[in-house]
Amino acid sequence: MIYNLPFLTVVALIAIGMYAMLFKKNLIKIAIGLTIVESGVNLFLITLGYREGGIAPIFTNLPPGMSPEEIPEKMVLPVPQALTLTSIVIGVAVLALILSLAIRIYRHYGTLNAEEVRRLKE
Amino acid sequence: MIESVEIYWNPLVWLIAFIVIAIVAYIIRAFGKKEHKKGEQAKPFLSGVEEPSKEAVHVRGGNVYWGFVEALKGYYGAMKKMHSGRVNDYVAWFVVIASILFVVLFALEAIL
Amino acid sequence: MNLMEHLPALIIAIPLITAFLTPLVDRASKKARNVLVFISLLITFILVVLLVQRVFDKGIITYVMGASNPTETIPKQAAVPIRIVLEIDGLSAFMLLISIFISFIGLIYSFAHIKEGGGRFYTLFLLMVVGMIGMELTGDLFNLFVFLEILSISSAALIAFEFKRATTIEAGIKYIIISSISALFVLFAVGLFYGEYDLLNMAAIANEIGGALSHIDKIALILLFSAFAMKAGTAPMHMWMPDAYGEAPGAISMVLIATTQASLYALLRVCFTIYNEALHVVFPIALILLGLASIFIGVTMALLQDDIKRLIAYAAVAEVGYIVLAIGAGLYGFLGGGDKFASLEMWKVALKGGIFHIFNDVLDIGLLFLVAGGIIYVTKERSLNKLGGLAHSMKYSSILFLIGLAAVAGLPPMNGFASKIIIYESIYGVSPILSIVAILASIVMLAIFVKIFHAIFTGPKLAEHGEVPKYMLASMIVLAGLIIFFGLFPDIVLKNLVNPAVNALMEYGKYISAVMG
To answer: Does any domain span residue B38?
Structure first.
């Protein structure tokens, strides 16, 4: 059960993030909701790679008493770590874009409320 | 069966037919009277009132289909409410479609 | 160092490097920047044509990034592909040709109206081209996600390009929120695939899924389907499309159509190649219903609009509905549903109609967007209520608009008629109601555009204007010429481009064996 805890956290994070994106009206809160969903997905990717009792996947600095043949089973998977790093960087770029657009919206409309920032309707 | 579309639609045949019919229409038009007066005889009769300028009676673009929209007022009222323009609704429709698919896919196999 | 061997990598690398050089060259001189961007897109266009010819001659091409031998997809020590594999088959080649051609036309058009901020514009434009081409070249799911995000970020920045108007920024923020949430769910599905199979390559995952779907596969399928259907603009998730297309600057509206078609391509890859025969029959039915809803909502909402570009954007939603309807009918027959439909092989014709319509849709709606952009540039007015009698001064634009109108409504001899009649004829096999709705929607589409034509081109002259600039006219005439040419000779496109694409969709076995050996 303890090993399912990260996956339950992922579900909770995505649920909280989607709640914020669906029901909150402030544009900054919607952006925060998007970031929480992204954190949830990143946590999911990292958790996929975990192997019980595993060490960091670096070949050159092995702990003492480990021979090179028994390595792959004792290491956590390195590929999801690369995927997560890429995703974090993409998330930063998207967040920067959303926040700069929100600043310009505030200058044009005077408000950040999604109910009033809707000149483009129907 | 329908591997190539040219069995029943050959655009060149259509073009030739179009040109032939256009020539026939022009010949029929040429049989008309030539003594048609322009000017005073061609103006509309509005009980003596001066005909207003074309700029004043030109129906603007947004109003051309007023009758159609007015007749379907119930449908368009529902559509306008659906297209509210709020960002939350955009994400909400995604969640609705995904959950409908989820329910159908997993419930269908439980029932059947 | 054989050039032909490394074509796929060069096609991605050249616009990407130019995108990073453009701000530097822009500091020096504007003309040099225009020449640089033009040359790089021209070289990319030539390379894409060479690659497409190679694909049609030799079959599926694979290219492994970072290996000593580019075609060795499975290294000797492993049993599965490890590196990022770019895989180009008939459908990828078709979409690549459309994307690069439309980007090139958009570039020529944009030379006329981008006066300031050009350095930012062309950098973002080239990054958008890289995103589109990358999505269509790649054979790896995570790479698809990365290129999808590159595409979304640069498109959102381009939509919000004219930041002095308030509505463009609103459209930009709505677009990036929508794109971001759908891309995050795509990433979640990629994570699910990785957790289950330890594989990221599309062909390898297709090999592993085999015939039956596990629960995790089903969840991943639902997420991928919904996310890509939203990015492709099917109703009821279409509402970002009128905002984004309507507020983008002139040429970008047309290139945005090609970017939504890249998401449609990703949807086709997921349904036909990764899941192939194991796809549940719910999904083609869902595609058919979404297509019907898009057609109906698109044409009826377009009658309400006052803004010219927003109206054309709703017509674009309806056209996406036609494509999705035809592809859904094709997928339904592919999975064996509807005995008479499947036995007569009409589902192959439906697929041909759908894929041909992808090609025609971007040409027709692209021409309409270009003419609308030209009108807005010359008259500085966007609303239909204030324009009138433009044919007196803008003769060429009115003729080109008339050609686009006939093409979108499906009147002969334009190419829209050729693909729409294939669609009407083939979806009749699934249910007659679909054909009836499709034909009625075409009639309403004709009504919409006759409304615009009557309102803004005919009638008394309200104000004096000039003609659109020469670059704009050149790109519009090229598109109109292609529309009429492919309308008179549709077999050229059908035999050479559409048939290989449909064959590539149906023969998923070749896609899998090209990577897995």
So the answer is: no
B101–C488: do the CB atoms touch at under 8 Å? no
Domain that holds residue B81: 5-33+60-111
Say if residues A33 and A17 touch (Cβ distance below 8 Å).
yes
> Where in chain C are the domains?
4-516
Q: How do residues B19-33 score in pLDDT, each as one tens digit?
A: 999 999 999 988 877
* Residue C201 β-bridge partners: C140
A98 three-class SS: helix
CA distance C166 to chain B (A): 15
Complex-level ipTM: 0.95
- Report yes or no on A115 lying in a domain: no
Nearest to A21 among B79, B85, B91 (CB): B91
Interface contact C146-A98, CB threshold 8 A = no
State the average pLDDT for chain C. 90
Residue B12 lies in a domain: yes
User: What are A38's two structure tokens?
Assistant: 């992204």
> Within an 8 Å CB–CB cutoff, is residue B66 touching chain C?
no
Test C157 with A122 for CB contact under 8 angstroms: no
Residue B51 lies in a domain: no
Which chain B positions have a beta carbon within 8 Å of A25's beta carbon?
88
Q: Which residues contact C470 (CB under 8 A, 6 or more apart)?
A: C112
Q: Are C302 and C450 in contact (CB under 8 A)?
A: no
Q: What is the pTM of this model?
A: 0.93
A28 interfaces chain B, CB cutoff of 8 Å: no
Residue identified by tokens 């994106």 is A21
Q: Is residue B22 part of a domain?
A: yes
Q: Which of A114, A119, A121 is opposite residue B88, by nearest beta carbon?
A: A114
The number of distinct structural domains making up chain B is 1
